[in-house]
Design a protein that fits this description.
- This is Tat pathway signal sequence domain protein.
- It holds the Pfam family PcRGLX_3rd.
- InterPro entries: PcRGLX/YetA-like, PcRGLX/YetA_2nd, PcRGLX/YetA_3rd, PcRGLX_1st, TAT_signal.
- By secondary structure, this protein is of the alpha+beta class.
- Among the domains are: 107 residues, no CATH class; 182 residues, no CATH class; 180 residues, no CATH class.
- 26% of the residues lie in helices and 26% in strands.
- It contains 20 helices and 37 strands.
- The strands form 7 sheets. It has a 20-stranded antiparallel β-sheet that branches. A 5-stranded antiparallel β-sheet has the order 4-3-7-1-28, with no helix packed on it.
- Helix 8 packs across helix 20, helix 13 packs across helix 15 and helix 19 packs antiparallel against helix 20.
- It is globular and about 100 Å long.
- The two termini are 22 Å apart.
- The relative contact order is 0.10.
Length: 896
């Protein structure tokens, strides 16, 4: 689909002149319908999913109700709620949830009254507990104490009980083979329970607390959400913990979720299952009756292999029946995934006796089962091998009650080492730290390389089953754990609604110049996806991130060289991936971006302590660098996933950032390079107009569109900073201002000042300004932004004539070509459109004459591919410049 510059300009001109305060609902004649499809194709089994749908400005009232139809026209029960509003009060994003036994190929969402589920989920909120009933299972959630879930029943049969979090804490890490350390067990201690949704299709219960020892000591605050859907036999858990230590002591030696499972059946009717790679599985009974010296009978053996109830032992060959007591009962099983490419399975009869090796394999699914013919419990952890070290434990399956633990951090792996990786090397002063920065690119400062306040979120699912499932059924469950079903909107809906500022157009290979760029974009994504696999960018803290810069000599990425190691969102690869998905609808890009969002929003950002709301610059460890800034924590990196999936945990991350302007009171981003004394003043905080303001503006805009008129403070700060930036003689070129926390405005600036950095606009400022200017008519602010867009890549003479000084020898000119293209559209200037394409092709990024291919490397530890000319900074900026310049001035594309 060709999107011309004139069309884009017309869309921008159509933006109402109303201020953000105008929340009146627009009269709607015809609410559009949207056809939805499955991200990875129609699931083969029952599916549960939540998704978000965007709507054009003014098209859908805020209180609109929705109906969902399957491809055959039949009504599908759906639960809907708003997640964002346009300035005129109309609906911008709606969220929806369904649970279907037989998924259709596609669905149509439109106005109407939602069909009611035949078995609605219900919530009973009592003084000391909450009961949730899906119509198939009933779950009791305690409001205090160690248990998150006290009981799960199915048809009045208790399937699992005493669901709680378990943690092993270790006070030190052994430094030699003879060293040892005592481990202390902590369990969840619930302090707050909130019912966030109560049906009819979907119910959500949030549980908050800390881990507590028998001695009463606490640490590791957690937030757990439990998800229930109508007619479902499972509970989904989204588990988040925050690390509240400095990393130099108190180490995590195990972190998991534990349940007790009643075992009612005879030992030979009790079953253990682990699904490995694909649908291969360990499939055993607690008391096996196959392979014996005496044969109980083919029918008996076949029943045990199938997991069905065995015939009465009186019907067996009595040479077996009379000797059942001599057959061992295997009560304990462990599947341990300590690295991305290998898991082991072992078993033993009971505690105190030797382990027997069962088998080993590559990448386990993360799904297990324990139970019997009268009911059992299946459990699964998403990204099981990617987030190693992980583990699944079953203990005491021979007793009246088995114990199941899903370990997010395996106790077999040793303690989680969060210590800083070097001793400071004498970098005690700012001059020494700046000098070291010149060699390793690491911005070090004592006590700043701390993990205190970082977090990690994991997704688990638990099934209460009526009987031991078939192998095919277990395979289906494993697939759901690996890749949860996800409904998505068509590309046209994501683009035409302009919910992300109109900077994206569909993939288009209609002319050779476009085809070349599209091929280059595909190469870059496929290359990084391959690097994740061949370079093993996996692990509990690491999965979801990518590396920053390549080492051309060692032919590896610079994983051990200061600021060249983990990327931590430097120059916005998150945005590159999400914009790539919006225009293509590709499942592989969505999953890549999803993993990055889960990582960068949790691990690279502080959620507790004085730096809460700030992120950490790229480095050898995700928390190592001393630059703690808004540019990494910016809400614009998380908004895509939140709106596309309605994920509540991502919503928490967005809410955390609303008051992050307070961080400038405790940490000055420019403390090492200031030439004059500076003490943070709440009425005169030095805040940059680039990476600082864009991060704050993204948080305020997101809060305003999510909350509407209730977000009056965020709205006031957004509008106030926009007005005062627009009033500065040189606008954004000024570089920074003095911000008042109380008024949410910058102090007046009377003189023209020039302070421009190549980084200022490269961490979401382009994207957030495009969204804001689509929403708010503020001519002075628009003029200030367009001035910056026009002049960054302009000549020395043009910069000096307009702003009074030359901007300096700036870099990242290719990445800034999209700013020129944006100005071309807003100002309707063909000369700027032509200049944008010239900058794109001849800037300091990737040129059309590069190899655009990788080479096979066999000299490294594992065979891989290398492209020495690729760096993540340039990749992210090339991707964004290509996507946005094509969307803005693609009708004027030229051959390189």
């Amino acid at each position: 689909m060709e999107v011309s510059r004139r069309t884009v300009l017309a869309g921008m001109a159509a933006v109402p002149a109303a201020s953000l305060l105008d929340t009146r609902s627009t009269a709607v004649a015809d609410v559009p319908e949207v056809k939805l499809s499955w991200l990875e194709g129609k699931p083969t089994t029952a599916a549960v999913t939540t998704w978000g749908t965007p709507w054009p400005k003014g098209a859908v009232p805020a209180d609109q109700t929705f109906a969902l139809k399957a491809a055959d026209g039949s009504a599908v029960p759906v639960q809907s709620w708003p997640t964002a509003y346009w300035p005129d009060g109309s609906l911008k994003w709606s969220a929806h949830a369904i649970a279907v036994d037989a998924p259709a190929e596609s669905y149509t969402l439109g106005p109407g009254t939602a069909a009611a589920p035949p078995q609605p989920v219900t919530v009973k909120n009592e003084k000391t507990y909450v009961d949730v009933d899906t119509g198939v299972i009933k779950t009791r959630i305690r409001k205090s104490g160690p248990e998150l879930i006290s009981h799960i029943w199915r048809d009045d049969v208790l399937i699992a009980r005493k669901g709680q979090l378990v943690n092993l804490k270790q006070d030190k890490i052994a430094e030699d083979e003879e060293g040892g350390s005592v481990r202390e067990r902590y369990e969840s201690d619930v302090t707050r329970v909130t019912v966030e949704q109560s049906g009819p299709v979907r119910a959500v219960v949030r549980i908050e607390g800390r881990h507590k020892s028998k001695k009463g000591k606490t640490w590791l605050p957690f937030s757990v959400r439990l998800y229930f859907v109508a007619g479902a036999e499972n509970v989904r858990m989204v588990h988040t913990f925050v690390y509240d230590r400095d990393g130099q002591k108190d180490y995590i030696a195990g972190l998991g979720v534990r349940f007790r499972v009643p075992m009612r059946d005879a030992a030979y009717d009790r079953h253990i299952r682990f699904v490995g790679e694909g649908h291969g599985m360990v499939s055993e009974a607690v008391k096996g009756i196959t392979g014996l010296r005496r044969d109980p009978g083919a029918t008996v053996r076949a029943a045990q292999i199938a997991g069905t109830k065995l015939p009465d032992p009186a019907t067996w060959d009595q040479r077996v029946t009379t000797r059942l007591k001599w057959i061992p009962e295997w009560g304990d099983y462990t599947l341990s995934q300590l690295n991305a490419d290998g898991f082991t399975v072992k078993k033993r009869t009971k505690k105190g006796y030797g382990w027997v090796s069962v088998d080993q394999g590559g990448r386990a699914s993360g799904l297990g089962y324990v139970g019997g013919v009268s009911g059992g419990f299946a459990f699964g952890l998403r990204d099981f091998w990617q987030r190693h070290p992980t583990q699944l434990d079953i203990r005491g399956a021979y007793t009246e009650e088995a114990e199941v633990t899903v370990w997010l951090w395996s106790p077999d792996a040793g303690a989680m080492d969060t210590r800083f990786y070097h001793d400071g090397m004498g970098e005690d002063t700012y001059p020494e730290q700046l000098d070291a920065l010149e060699i390793t690119y690491e911005d070090y400062e004592p006590k700043f390389g701390t993990p205190y306040g970082i977090a990690r979120t994991s997704e688990l699912t638990f099934w209460a089953l009526a009987a031991t499932p078939t192998a095919a059924r277990l395979g289906d469950l494993a697939d759901q754990v690996r890749t949860p079903p996800q409904l998505i909107n068509p590309v046209d809906q994501l683009i035409s609604t302009r919910v992300f500022g109109g900077l994206v157009s569909p993939v288009d290979r209609s002319v050779p110049a476009r085809k070349a760029i599209e091929d280059h974009l595909d190469f870059l994504f496929d290359f990084y996806r391959g690097q994740v696999e061949s370079r093993h960018w996996y692990g509990f803290w690491d999965y979801g991130d990518i590396m920053h810069t390549f080492d051309e000599d060692r032919l590896v990425w610079r994983y051990d060289v200061g600021g060249y190691a983990w990327d931590n969102s430097e120059l916005s690869p998150d945005l590159w991936l999400w914009y790539s998905f919006l225009r293509s609808g590709r499942a592989d890009i969505f999953r890549f971006a999803e993993a990055m969002t889960r990582h960068t929003g949790e691990v690279d950002v502080y959620h507790l302590g004085q730096w809460a709301g700030l992120g950490t610059r790229h480095g050898v460890q995700h928390w190592a660098d001393s630059a703690k800034q808004q540019r990494i924590s910016t809400a614009i990196y998380r908004r895509f996933y939140y709106y596309l999936t309605a994920d509540e945990r991502t919503g928490d991350l967005l809410s955390e950032l609303v008051d992050s302007d307070q961080t400038f009171l405790v940490l000055d981003p420019l403390r090492k390079i200031r030439t004059e004394p500076y003490e943070p003043d709440p009425h005169a905080l030095a805040i940059g107009l680039g990476t600082d303001w864009s991060g704050l503006a993204a948080a305020w805009l997101t809060e305003w569109e999510r909350q509407g008129p209730k977000a009056d403070v965020a709205h006031s700060k957004l509008l106030g900073t926009m007005e005062t930036i627009g009033a500065m003689p040189n606008g954004f070129v000024t570089g920074g201002g003095l911000y008042d926390l109380d008024t949410g405005r910058f102090a007046p600036v009377t003189e023209k000042t020039v302070s421009v950095s190549h980084l200022s606009a490269m961490f979401g400022q382009v994207e957030i300004c495009a969204e804001i200017l689509d929403l708010v008519e503020m001519p002075a602010f628009e003029a200030a932004w367009l001035q910056y867009c026009r002049l960054f890549n302009a000549t020395r003479e043009e910069q000096t004539a307009e702003c009074g000084a030359y901007f300096g020898n700036l870099i990242l000119r290719q990445g800034h070509s999209r700013l020129t293209a944006y100005a071309a559209v807003r100002l309707d200037r063909d000369d700027l459109a032509a200049r944008a394409w010239k900058e794109f092709y001849t800037g300091d990024g990737y040129g059309p004459n590069l190899p655009w291919a990788s080479e096979e490397v066999k000299s490294t530890l594992n065979p891989t591919q290398a492209a020495k000319w690729v760096s993540t900074n340039t990749t992210a900026l090339y991707g964004l410049a290509a996507i946005q310049t094509l969307a803005l001035v693609g009708d004027q594309i030229v051959n390189p």
